[in-house]
Each structure stands twice: as structure tokens, then as C-alpha cells.
Specification:
Elements lengths: L5 H5 L7 E13 L3 E7 L7 E6 L5 H6 L5 E10 L7 E12 L15 H6 L8 H24 L2 E2 L5 E2 L40 E2 L4 H11 L1 E9 L12 E10 L3 H22 L1 H10 L4 H10 L3 E4 H10 L16 H11 L4 E7 L15 E9 L3 E8 L4 H10 L8 H8 L5 E7 H9 L20
Parallel strand pairs: 3-5, 6-9, 11-12
Antiparallel strand pairs: 1-2, 1-4, 2-3, 4-5, 7-8, 9-10, 10-15, 12-13, 13-14, 14-15
Helix pairs in contact: 4-6, 4-7, 6-8
Length: 462
């Protein structure tokens, strides 16, 4: 007999025929005559109930069926007598694949704190919460590829190891094969990279954007979806040292087209989640965040507010609030400011544009006012910045002068500059932090709990 997944069985009628399931025991209860086992195989948040007549099975086997044990069960798929499920399995054979010591298995029935579960990240996928998060994460990754593929965008693989910190987005992780106890030095004491693997300094990428632009200026519309690395020492619920980013980049898009795409894209993903992850979202709405489904529907059904950074600063200044970080034209917005705008002032997602050039990256298109650039940040409830993007500077001279002004390594950027020399074009793009988006869709509150194995300062276990 072939195995059937529990998700399939739970949506099928009580056929009375024999089925075979495999999974892990969530709970066992009953008495010396009859035993009820809740079995889960990860295909759905729901368990299937196995009913075993104890007289048909070995006493030792029955004792060894404890929370966490792995079983193969065959039996008849019958209508359930109990509440909470339509069908259950009347067991005929049970094979114990793996015992689970009742004394030491850490996932007992009582709820555990998120902090504790992080310490057992190898087992936490077996909880309802993490099972739900991982299934939703998968569905969102799939929907991202589907959305772009259906729109005619190409998935471009940008490098993970890069030769320069062109973007200056954050501290970078160094990549080297040097023996760190014996690093070759030049006469002046600096590191001699000529003998290193790449013959020059190399780092893990902080963003695929610059290479993404090369793709857009050749094949039109591309997106990247890969891991990015930032060695920033930000111990916040919204920062990871290793996170996944989606970066579409489009030739012939201006900032308005860019905003339209960003809004359509995130709404598509939310709709996809509501349609395809119903059971998991309902569970999270009940157990983690009672406002989740309402918030998802709200974002889906409302047009995002669009305004300039300058207008937003005015609202913040006029709010009469006491801020932890000062507000003022020219200062970057902090999460507390972004969340005030979204959660209290507008009560709606907000797209801010036209930021001061001094607080944004060199490649953003310069406005005629000489002070601002065509940047756009999308701000979400509970999160703050979820997307950062811009129209890119396509003018060679303007781009070069900005690179010089900021004393960026001009010679490392020769290839990037050449795109503005040979057939430059207006183009735009943005980056969506995948985990920040998963935080929003799941209602989880810490970014460490929406990635299977989080990497944060002083933490690279598992
Ligand atoms: P923040 O100000 O919140 O640190 P950022 O300005 O550094 O963000 P960008 O460089 O614009 O962010 O990156 C694009 C997107 O990547 C952000 O909008 C956010 O969703 C996500 N992101 C940035 N840094 C991190 C991080 N350390 N961990 C997880 N996601 C991140
Ligand atoms: Mn940052």
C-alpha cells in the first residue's frame, strides 16, 4: 500500500477502505482498552486521529508510542465518532519507526515561549506555529516566482560572493581562504590580497541590485530572489545577518511604475496567502495575533497612501509626539516614525518618496531640486520599512559625479558605469525583505521566528 498524506485524507470522505499514513505523534490519550493518537505529517496543521484497540497490539509497542515518536499506521478510514474531525483511522497495524523518550523530548503539550523554541530550532518545526510559518513561507516563495513569471520577468541569479561594497548598505562579511593566524601583509602593514583566493578582497553580497540593473538593461524585466548578508550589529526584531531578498529591476519604469508594481506585487502575495494558506492563517490568527486576518484584508482592500518624505516629516513634527530619535528634514526615519505614520496617522500602508539624497544610496535618480532623489520606501503596519527602492540615475555624468562626491571606489564600479555609457535607459527597481514580509503575513513578532535557522549577532547554531 502507498502512503497517503494526512491533508488528503482529512479532506476525503469516510470510504471504509484501508489507508497508510506516516507521521509524528502529537498526543496520545485513552485507557487500557482504547488508545487515541493524534498524528501529524506536516502536510497540514491538522492531525489525523488514530484509534487503536489496545488488545490488538503489543503492550510494549503501546507504551513506546509517546509524544514525538514516529509511526507508520495502516487501518480503515472511517467516520469519526469524536468531535473536531470528519474521519479517523481504525488502526490495523502500527510500525514504530522511532521512539521519543518521554523524559527528554522537549516539546511537550504545554505551550513554549518563542525564546525557548529558538534554542531548539532543530525541533521547533514540529510545533503547530512553526509548521504553519514554514508552510506559509514556502507558499510565498512559490507565489513570488509565479507572479513574476506570469508577468514576463526573468529570474536572474546574481552572485553571492562579490568583489566590492558598492552599495554601502551595511557592514559586510569577508570571504577569504587565508589562514587567519597568518595573513600576508604588505610593507605598509595592510593585507596583501594577491595570494588570496580571488586575488582581491571579496565579500558576501548585501544586495543583488547592481547586477540586477545589468540584467534589466539587457533583457528588460528581471528579479532576483536570494540570500543577502549584513554584518550589522542590529539586535532588533526586524534584522537578521542572513536574510532573503526579492529585487525586481525594470527597464523603462519610472518611479510611478515602480510604486504601482510594488503595491500590486504585495497585494498579489497577500491574496495568494489568503486563498492558499487558509488553515495555517486561521491557526495563527487564533493563537498568535487576533488581528491578523483583519489586517491582511485591510491592506489588500485599501490603496496605499503615497506622499513625499518632506510631507511626512512635517506630519511627524506636527504630531506633538516625544520621539526617541529626533525628527527633522535630512534625518533618516526610524521604525518608530514609520510606524506612527502607518499605524496611527494614516492607519494604512504608506509609500514615501523623494528622500534627501544624503541619506540614500548613490545610484538613485537625482531630482531637479538638487536636494532629493527618486527613492521610495513602502511602510507597513507592525513592521515599518518592508520595501526600499528607487528610480535609478541613468545619466552617466550625474552618476559619476555622485560616485566621486561620496568617494566611492570608482574603479571597482567600471562595469556599472558602462551601462550608462552604452545605451542607457530610464529604469527602476526595489528590494522586498522576504522575512519582513513573512512577519507581516504570519503575524509573528520576531524575525528570528520566520526563518528556519536564524543568523544574528553571536548566534549561528544549527
Ligand atoms: P533598515 O533601515 O530597516 O535597516 P535598510 O534601509 O537597510 O533597512 P535596504 O538596504 O533598503 O534596507 O534593503 C531592502 C529591504 O531589505 C528592506 O526594505 C527590508 O525589508 C530588508 N532588510 C534590510 N536589512 C535587513 C536585515 N538586516 N534583516 C532582514 N531584512 C532586512
Ligand atoms: Mn539597514
Amino acid at each position: 500500500m502507498k502512503r497517503t498524506k494526512i491533508k488528503i485524507l482529512l479532506s476525503s470522505p469516510a470510504t471504509g477502505s484501508d489507508v497508510l499514513v506516516k507521521g509524528w505523534v502529537r498526543t496520545k490519550r485513552g485507557n487500557k482498552n482504547i488508545v487515541f493518537i493524534a498524528l501529524n505529517d506536516g502536510s497540514t496543521i491538522k492531525n489525523i486521529q488514530i484509534v487503536a484497540d489496545a488488545s490488538m497490539f503489543d503492550d510494549g509497542l503501546m507504551r513506546d508510542i509517546t509524544t514525538g515518536a514516529c509511526l507508520e499506521v495502516t487501518g480503515e478510514l472511517v467516520e469519526s465518532q469524536g468531535q473536531g474531525q470528519n474521519v479517523e483511522i481504525k488502526a490495523k497495524t502500527i510500525v514504530l519507526y522511532g521512539k521519543s523518550d518521554a523524559e527528554s523530548y522537549p516539546l511537550q503539550k504545554k505551550g513554549h515561549s518563542m525564546e525557548f523554541l529558538r534554542e531548539i530550532a532543530h525541533l521547533r518545526p514540529r510545533t503547530n506555529t512553526f509548521g504553519a510559518v514554514l508552510r506559509i513561507r514556502h507558499s510565498m516563495a512559490f507565489a513570488i516566482h509565479k507572479y513574476f513569471n506570469d508577468k514576463g520577468f526573468y529570474y536572474l541569479h546574481t552572485p553571492i560572493i562579490t568583489g566590492s561594497d558598492a552599495e554601502g548598505a551595511g557592514e559586510m562579511f569577508h570571504v577569504t581562504t587565508f589562514d587567519l593566524a597568518d595573513v600576508p601583509k604588505n610593507k605598509d602593514g595592510s593585507v596583501d590580497y594577491s595570494g588570496d583566493f580571488f586575488g582581491k578582497p571579496a565579500n558576501l553580497t548585501v544586495s543583488g541590485q547592481l547586477e540586477g540593473e545589468l540584467g534589466a538593461l539587457a533583457i528588460g524585466e528581471i528579479y532576483t530572489f536570494g540570500p543577502t548578508f549584513r554584518a550589522e550589529n542590529s539586535n532588533t526584531p526586524r534584522h537578521l545577518a542572513e536574510f532573503w531578498m526579492i529585487e525586481p529591476e525594470m527597464a523603462f519604469y519610472d518611479i510611478e511604475d515602480n510604486m504601482d508594481l510594488a503595491e500590486e506585487f504585495v497585494k498579489y502575495l497577500i491574496r495568494y496567502a489568503l486563498e492558499n494558506c487558509k488553515d495555517d492563517l486561521e491557526f495563527l490568527n487564533n493563537m498568535i495575533d487576533k488581528g491578523l486576518l483583519e489586517r491582511l484584508a485591510f491592506v489588500l482592500n485599501n490603496k496605499f497612501i503615497r506622499m513625499t518624505y518632506t510631507e511626512a516629516v512635517k506630519i511627524l513634527e506636527d504630531s506633538g509626539r516625544k520621539w526617541e530619535y529626533a525628527v527633522g528634514w535630512g534625518r533618516d526615519l526610524q521604525a518608530e516614525h514609520e510606524r506612527y505614520l502607518v499605524e496611527e496617522h494614516f492607519k494604512c500602508p504608506v509609500i514615501l518618496t523623494d528622500y534627501p539624497k544624503a541619506i540614500k544610496a548613490f545610484y538613485m535618480k537625482q531630482n531637479d531640486d538638487g536636494k532629493t532623489v527618486r527613492a521610495m520606501d513602502v511602510l507597513f503596519p507592525g513592521i515599518g520599512e518592508i520595501i526600499g527602492g528607487s528610480q535609478r540615475e541613468e545619466d552617466y555624468e550625474k552618476l559619476l559625479s555622485r560616485i566621486r562626491e561620496l568617494k566611492l571606489p570608482e574603479k571597482d564600479l567600471w562595469w556599472y558605469l558602462e551601462t550608462r555609457k552604452f545605451g542607457t535607459a530610464p529604469h527602476s527597481g526595489f528590494g522586498l525583505g522576504f522575512e519582513r514580509f513573512i512577519l507581516f503575513v504570519t503575524g509573528m513578532s520576531n524575525i528570528r521566528d520566520v526563518i528556519p535557522f536564524p543568523r544574528t549577532p553571536k548566534n549561528a547554531e544549527f
